[in-house]
Structure formats: structure tokens, C-alpha cells
Amino acid sequence: MDFELSEEQMMSRDMARKFAEKEIIPKLRENERQEKFDPGIIKKMASQGLLAPHMPEKYGGMGLDYVTSAVIWESLCHASLAVTQAAVSGPIQPATNLLDAGTEEQKQKYLPPVCKGERIMSGAVVEPNAGSDSSMIETAAARSGNHWIINGSKIFITNGEIADVVLFIAQTDKSKGLKGLTSFIVEKDTPGFSSTPMKGRISWRGGSEGALQFTDMELPLENQVGEVGSALRDALRGIDTARLFLAAGCVGVAQSCLDSCLKYAKERVQFGKPIGGHQLIQEIIAEMATRTEAARWLAYRAADLKSRGVRHIKEMSYAKYFAAETALWAASQAVKIHGSFGTFDDYPVGHHYQDAITATILGGTAQIHQLTIGQQLLEMAAFK
Ligand SMILES: Cc1cc2nc3c(=O)[nH]c(=O)nc-3n(C[C@H](O)[C@H](O)[C@H](O)COP(=O)(O)OP(=O)(O)OC[C@H]3O[C@@H](n4cnc5c(N)ncnc54)[C@H](O)[C@@H]3O)c2cc1C
Fold first, then answer.
1. Rounded Cα–Cα distance for residues 203 and 352 (Å)
2. Cα–Cα distance, 365 to 359 (Å, whole number)
């Protein structure tokens, strides 16, 4: 067991942190106030090799291991989880799905531009009546001669409104439940495809979500990705990578809250001394540091198992579940330590507090991860 980051990993960490401080933080407050994501950040990340660290070089990524990728994601999310997620989500989930299930032609066509930040890709699974339970997916794909005809809708899709291309899941045989789901890829200018922004968020205000509509949308057969009925199986590695991203990102959020509290607790004087000198504040800071460190090692452990190709279903759920809860807890404590100043957006803790609640929902809710862990430990079905 080696608990030290390599020289290269430390360099990646420092580079990503500097990038986030220079490119994300200065615009964050204004963009969050306007509920706006600036897609320009995607190209900037790509130019620094930060957009698709885990993807093979052959398809425009950096070909790095998952621990190094997690270290990079943690450092970027130290500034903003929502902005980083909107920027990297294409290369993380839909691109990984395409890598695993696409034909060589599909991979050559879509992956390099997405991993280099030239085109934006969304991954669309969730619908108004199908959240955690994908067997409820109603978007239907019906075969008609040399085409598929698609009807249905998707919501909460990261970059849904601005995506150039969307990898989505539809049901091709309702009677087969989860085994009747198939993946397709669609370009935004396809007739029958439309998208709208989803505004009014109380959290993730620096991110980007949209709703998609498919109305008698005709897709040629070559836009099918993977085999008929294999969508969920094909999506597993992409879902797992998204979970790792969120686990690492939440560690970055918790660390940022801790850093802010350490600084503030030394500067803010009440009752004749810096508030850090009061033992009740020290208790919170000690707890925050301990939980953050525990979350970090759960995330790195899951990343290491993933890199080595070792089965890690429960370890990824430990990491995502615990890191998201830690980020939410740390952010709420951090706002309290900053007092009323913490409730304004001059300090980073307020925006982390807003974002952290969403981190407990996407990438599998807390309950879904608890059930996954229970199912793995008990070897008993938890979702039926
Ligand atoms: C910022 C953001 C970005 C997103 N990006 C995308 C995207 O790019 N693509 C995409 O497809 N989706 C995306 N989503 C959607 C996200 O994946 C879903 O919101 C998430 O899967 C949960 O689904 P739901 O919101 O419908 O909640 P539901 O599944 O309806 O759950 C509601 C509550 O019930 C609980 N629950 C559900 N089932 C059980 C059970 N069996 N036992 C106990 N409790 C249960 C849940 O834990 C939760 O607390 C995004 C969401 C957000 C907020």
C-alpha cells in the first residue's frame, strides 16, 4: 500500500488548482447570480489537458489512470463542482459509454472532438417519470424500415440545451424492462429534436441543465449505439466514472470549505480572541478535516481499484455516498463558522453549500448508494 501521490499526480493537482483559481473563480459569482454556465471553460480545460484525463489518447484524452484523474477533478471542484461537472460531464459519462459500446466509426467521429472541447456531448437517461428507476423510461424507439422513430422526453440533462450531440437511452421493448433499453446518438440539428433550458435552480447555479424533446424523430440505423437491449449494461462504466468524478469533486468541495474555515477562524475575532481559539469551533474544524480526509481516501481507493480493473461496486458507492454527505455537512458547518458573512456570496462556502445538496442527488442518490452497499454486503436484492 502506498498512500503517497506520485510527483506527476502532485503536479497535476497543483496545475488543476491554479487553473481553477485563474479560470473558474473570477467569473463564478457573476455567473451564479445569472444562473449561467460559460461553455468557453470547456475549451480552456481541454487546452490544459484537464477535460478528459481518463480517456485514451487515441480518442483525444490524456490516457491517465483514475487516481490521477480523481486528483484533477478534486482540484477543479475546489473552485466549483457545478462548473466542473458541466464542463467535464460529456467526456465522463456519454463518452465513456460510446467508448465501450460504439463502433470504431462512431468513436472516431464523436470522441476526439468531445475530448478536445470542440463539441459538447450530453448523456440523457432521466425522464419526468424515470429517475433512479430506469425501468420506467417511456421514450420509445420503434423500428421502421431503415430507421428508428423516436418519441419521448428527457429532463435534468447536463448541457441539454447547448449540446451538439446527445447519447440517449430509449426503450425498444417495454416488455423486457431494463433489458429492453437501447442507446442512440443524435445531433442537435436533427428534425424532431428540440431542447430547452431548465432555469430556476436553487443549487448548481453555475452549471447547465436542459430538457429534451423527441417528436417523430427519425434516426438512421447507424445512430444506434451498441446492441438492441444492451443500453444499461453498456452504460455501467460511464456511470461508475461519473460516480468517481462526483466523489472526488465532493472531496474538493469539503477541502475548500475547510481551507476557508481555517483562514476565517484565525482572522475573525469575537469575545477577545480569534474564533479559532474557541474550543467549540476547533471541534467542528477537527471533524471537518477528519471527514474530508476519510472521504478523500475512499475516493482514491475506489479510483485505484477501478484503474487496476478490480471489482469495486461497493467501494465506489462508499466513496460517492460518503463524499457527498461530507461535502454537504462540511459546507453547512462552514457557513455557520462564517456567520452572516457566510450567507453572502463573497465567501466560497455559500456557493459550496448550495451545490452540495445537488451532489447528494445526481450520480445516484444517497439511498441508491446505501441500497447498493446493502445489496453487495447481504447478497440480497435491494431494488425489488
Ligand atoms: C445538476 C444535475 C445534473 C443532472 N444531469 C443529468 C444528465 O446529464 N443526464 C441524466 O440522465 N440525468 C441527469 N440528472 C438527473 C439525475 O440523474 C436524477 O435527478 C437522479 O438520478 C435522481 O432521480 P430523481 O431526481 O428523479 O429522483 P427519484 O429517483 O424520484 O428519487 C426521489 C427520492 O426517492 C428516493 N428513492 C428512490 N428510489 C428509492 C428506493 N428504492 N428506496 C429508497 N429511496 C428511494 C431517492 O433517494 C430520492 O431521495 C441530473 C440532475 C441534476 C440535479
1. 9
2. 8
Ligand 1 centroid to Cα of residue 243, in Å, is 13
| Rounded distance from Cα 283 to ligand 1 centre (Å) | 34
265 lines ligand 1 (CB under 6 A): no
C-alpha span between 134 and 126 (Å, rounded): 7
Q: Which of 282, 290, 254 is CA-nearest to residue 266?
A: 282
Ligand 1 centroid to 156 CA: how many Å? 9
Cα 122 to ligand 1 centroid, rounded to whole Å: 17
Distance between Cα 361 and ligand 1 center (Å): 6
Helices (H), the chain: 7-19, 25-33, 40-47, 66-77, 81-101, 104-115, 231-267, 279-307, 313-337, 348-359, 366-378
Question: Which residue has the least CA distance to atom 48 on ligand 1?
Answer: 365
Question: Is 132 close to ligand 1, i.e. is its CB under 6 Å away?
Answer: yes
Same domain, 131 and 97: no
Exposure class string for 211-221: b at 16+ Cβ within 10 A, else e: bbebeebebee
pLDDT for residue 286: 98
Could you report the per-residue pLDDT of 239-290, keeping only the tens digit for each?
Answer: 999 999 999 999 999 999 999 999 999 999 999 999 999 999 999 999 999 9
Q: Directed axis angle between helix 66-77 and helix 7-19, to 10°? A: 30
pLDDT at 384 over 90: no
Residue 322 has a pLDDT of 98
Q: What is the mean pLDDT of residues 314-334?
A: 98
- In the block, residue with C-alpha cell 426503450: 171
Ligand 1, atom 11: nearest CA belongs to which residue? 125
For range 151-160, the mean pLDDT: 98
pLDDT-derived band of residue 4, with 50, 70 and 90 as boundaries?
very high
Number of structural domains in the chain: 3
Cα separation, 354 vs 361, in Å, equals 13
* Whether 129 and 89 share a structural domain: no
User: CB of 135 closer than 6 A to ligand 1?
Assistant: no
Does residue 383 sit within a domain?
no
Helix (H, G, I), strand (E, B) or coil at 223: helix
- Asked if pLDDT for residue 173 goes beyond 90, the answer is yes
- The enclosing domain of 60 has a CATH number of 1.10.540.10
